[in-house]
Structures are given as structure tokens and as C-alpha cells.
Predict the 3D structure of the following.
Amino acid sequence: MTLLLFSSCNQRGKAVSSDTASVDSLLCPKYATGYQVKSQDGVRLVDVGGDYHFALVTSDDVTVPDGYTKIHTPIKSTICMTALQLSNFTILDAHDVVKGLTGTKNLFNKDILQRVKDGRIVKIGTEGDFDTEMVLAANPNVIFISPFKRGGYDAIKETGITLVPHLGYKELNPLGQAEWIKFVGMFIGKEKEACEVFAGIEQRYNSLKLKVESLKLKELPTVTSGEMHYGNWHAVGGKNYLAQIFRDAGADYVIHDEETAGKDLEFEKMYELAANADYWRILNSFPGEFSYEALKASEPRNELFKAFKEHKVIYCNMRQTPYYEISPVEPDVLLKDFVAIFHPELVEADYQPTFYYLLK
Amino acid sequence: MRRTLPLILMLMLAIAVMAIVNLLIGSVKIPVADICRILVGDDSQEIWTNIIWKSRLPQVLTAIVAGAGLAVSGLQMQTVFRNPLAGPSVLGISNGSALGVAFVVLLSGKIGGVALSRLGYFGDAAMSVAAIIGALAVMLLILWVAQKVKGNVTLLIIGVMIGYLANAIIGVLKFLAPDEDVKSFVVWGLGSFSRVSGDEMILFVVLMCILLPLSFLLVKSMNLMLLGDRYAANLGLNIRRARMLVIISSGILVAIVTAYCGPIMFIGLAVPHLARAIFRSSDHRILMPATALCGALLALVCNFIARMPGFEGALPVNSVTALVGAPVIAAVIFGRRKNEVGE
């Protein structure tokens, strides 16, 4: 009975060996909402986002349920469309599976850059305009995609390569986003490593979150985010990934709506919301050392914010820090960076931030 | 002529009313009483005070001078080329500013490394400079061509070609640039009266307040140009010189407005027609101020609509100018033509 329970998240299917079963149970996402895993007759069935169903098999003579696309695992080669996906491979030490990328802008990982340089990884062009020849040259078993709106996937589909949506970017929970390493782990035969790595992330994240909660603060510091750009302020929504991290780090994000991605706000609206926020988080790719002078130069009204006046801007420069490349699989580190700013007493005195620091 | 003065006064009144409406209503709700208190110098409500003085007022002033500038520039172009479809963008001048901005936004960090990209970040200031440089470069090119060719149509065609060329280069730059930079460029291209603030806004308004009256000095030449090149020449007008001056005046106006507000379409093309229809005159002594006032008014109306509560900055000014302006102006002109037939 126990084995049966273990064999799948939904308690369906039949039990296989106890070892596989326990890994299977670990593979079931606890935080991620974009994919589900179940085992049936020794075949691992993965449902992605409702519309996509994959059966991961290790030998070809297995029959898979209707509606499932058969994928022979472990896959030996793939193409990553986003830095977020790449981060999954990086943390699993599986760069050798990656044969293609969309681009290398703001990419820091030396190993990846070297592989691009000597041709082991090819650049296949941007979304909406893929170079099909390069895609074919990379000879991927599957391609992980993050379907936005620009398309260009039909041409790749024509080539017969299986496209697997990687919906990590849609996860609103930081741990949920990181949990996609288990998803990638299943495809590349590193499910055990993936579960171990994730367990570590989860443990570190949750224990720090608990520490913050144990402060039982009546009043949380408030934090705002973003910058004015050509007349508009793109404000991430109150249900965004970032808003969640702020909450977990013991701060209150100034926007409390139900939006996830966010929306463009006019200056006066954003100013009304954020004028008195204690902190102000900014992520950009400023060339050189960012400063309060630079912030003011980009928009004179920036100096009206309390966080500007009190020099409490939380900053990360994507030109200097591999933010998109690694932060998706290090939510615990991101959280710690924020906690170190909001509640410094909770981290060691000599803590060195990785991504975000308080701009002096 | 008799109806001109009352019409001008009415336009001024309408501008004043719209300016006040723009001050009163925005995406943040501020009670009218509080706004009045703020306007007379009470600053106890710090956030609202800043919103009024540093966000709404600059927008009102920007919209007024930008609208006037674009409209006058459009009128000048239509007169020089004696072509009702001419507008500030027809000679590729606004494409020139777009190209300048594209170089800064899309290439930042790629070519020339540090210098360009540093410029790129100081956001709006650097973009203004780039836009002006781009526009003036195209304008100089046009002027050089204007000296070589005689016919206006030839010049017009060359202007349009330069525009295409600039667009093609922008296309390549966009293609090569990363997504977020392309998005920035697209946002810039939507136009906005709200991105100018602080000292920049003051500089912009002062510049326009100098340039607009200067452009009025050309009304005599423009009236003569309406008669056709030969008549004008017979009446002692140096056609080439006059043409150059008008193009320079128009080009600089567009360059500066585009630099600060992005490429605002439509106003330059349509407002002169509106002014002609309302004032029933082709005398530039009337048309110039009339066009400037109509431009300012239309810009204020559009700015108001774009910022109405609920939209919260989601509507770009460029869409509003066309969505609101096109039917209104079509109706006015249509009504006028019908009357003409009836008369």
C-alpha cells in the first residue's frame, strides 16, 4: 500500500521498485504548478500546463498511453530558449546536454561561453526568428521552449523535433520556479541529483522564511520596485514572484493587487503608491557603477521618493551579476539578500550579498 | 477676417479650460479643493503637491508647446510642398530622430562600447540629444539636396526616400537588438507628453517659446509661396532661400518636439487642415497662430483622454491623437467641403 501511494502524486498507477518509487514521490512538485508527474507501468508520465503530455521511457518497446508523446530518456542533447532554463542545467552540472542557446547577452558562465566559443553550443537566433539550420545542426533530442507571443516555433516543429514547454517563468512561488530543476532532471536522467539539490534549496529558503516569521513584526518595512521608463513605470503585480519574495523576506510590497506580470503605470500613480516606501528595488543593466546621481539623471522626479532620499535603494546590476542566469535556481540566496537588507539581525554580520545590495 | 478674433479668443479659452481639466483629473484622484490649495502654494500634502507641480503641470505645458510646435511644423511643410498630405514626417526628419534614438537605445553597449552605452542610460537626456542629432542630420541632408534640385516634388520624393532609408536601418538595429531594448524603443515610439520633467521640461518649453514666434516671421514668404514659384519669384521672393528657411524652421521644431516627447504622429498632418476649415482662410497671418492654438488644444485633449482614470497611462498618446483626432478632423473638413458645394 505504501508503495502504491509512493508511486505517483495522485496515487494512481502501479508500483515499481521501491527505489524508483521514492524518487518518483520526490519528483512530484510541491510548489510548482506548471507540471505534474505520475508513474504508470514503469513509464513516467509528465503533464505540462494541461495541454502537453510526455511519456518518458528508457526503452523503445514500451507502449505509452494515448495522447502522450514518447521521449526516450535520458536525452543527450537539447536547446535552451531562456536563461531560466539554462540555470536548471547549470545547477545540475549538465552543460554537456545543452547544444544550443538563443543568445549570450548578459551571460556570465565561463563554461557556457567557452562552449559557445568553440562551437559545442550554437546560437539559434531569437524567438520569432529562429535559424532552422542551426537548430538542426544542434541536433537536439528535445527543445525546451518558453512560449511567449512571437512564435516561430512552427518552423521548428516541422523538423520533427519534440518541443517541451518549460513553464518555470510562470511560477509565482520562488520555490515553485526553482522546482523546475526536477522537471529538467527527469529528462536528462539526473532526477536524484535534482531532488537533492532542490531539497537543499527548499530547506534553506523555508528555514530563513520561518526565522523572518518568528520575528512576529507588527509593522513590516514597505518596498517598491521598478523604474520610470520613457513616461511609464512598469509595476510588477502584487501576485508576482518578486512580491512573494518580498513577503517571505518580511517586507510589504506597495502593490497589493491580483496581477501577476504587472502593468504600466503613470508616474503620478506610482508616486502615490510608492512615495513613502522604505525601500526601492531596482534591477537594470546600467553600464558602469550605478549611483543615486545616475538614478536621478535618468528621471529627475526619482529624488522625490523617500527611499531615494534615505538612500535605501536595493540594487542589482545585470551587467555585473548573473541574475537571470542563476537566480531562478537560487531563490534561497535571493531571499537571504533581501532579508539581509530588511532584517539584518537575521543573517550573519559579515554576509556578502550575491544579487541585491543596498546602494550606498 | 471679422470672425478671426473671436475664434482665436475662443480657442485660447478652450486651451485654458483643457489645461485646467488636465490639472484636475489624472490617474490619482485628488479633490478639487486640495488642488486649488496646492496651486496657491499650500504644500502640506507632500505627495499631491509633487504630483501637481512635478507631474501634471509639466505635462500640461509640454502638451501645449509640443502640440503647437508640431502643428506649425506641419503647416510649414504643407505650404512649402503645396501638398495637403505633407507633414512633419514627410521629409524623413522624424525618422531621423528615431534613427538617432535607435542608435542609442538599440546599440547601447554594442558599438563603441562604453561611450554610447553610458549615453544610453542617462535615459531621456541622451535620447533627446540623439533625437536632435538624428533629425538635424537628415535636415542638413535635405537642405543640401534642396540646393541641388529645383522641383518641390523631387525634393519631396527624396525626403520620403531618406525616411525609408532611416526606417530600414532602424529595422536592422531592432532585429539585432535584444528584446528588452526593442521594447524600450517601441515604448519611445509611442510618444508621450509625460516623460519630460524638471529642468528638461523648462528647457523644452523655453526653447519652443523662442522657436514658435521665430517661425511666425516666415508668414510673408509662406503666403507668397502659395501663389506658386513663378509668381512668388516675380514678387521678389528668393524661392530657394525661403524654402530653406521654412524647412529649417519646420525641421527644428519637429526635431525638438520628437526629442522630448517621442514621435507624435498625426497632429502635424491634420491640425493645419482643421485650422483652415475652422478659420476658412489660407492667409498664413491667420493660419499660423490658428494652427498653433488648434495644435495645443488637440494635444491637451488627447493627453487628457490618454490619462483618464481607468486607463492609467495604458493608452499611448500616439493612438489617442489618431483615434480621437482623425474622426473629429475628418468631420470638420467634410462639413466644410459640403458647405462649399452648397454655397
User: Anything to note?
Assistant: Residues 21 and 114 of chain B are 44 Å apart (CA to CA). Residues 46-80 of chain B form the longest helix (35 residues).
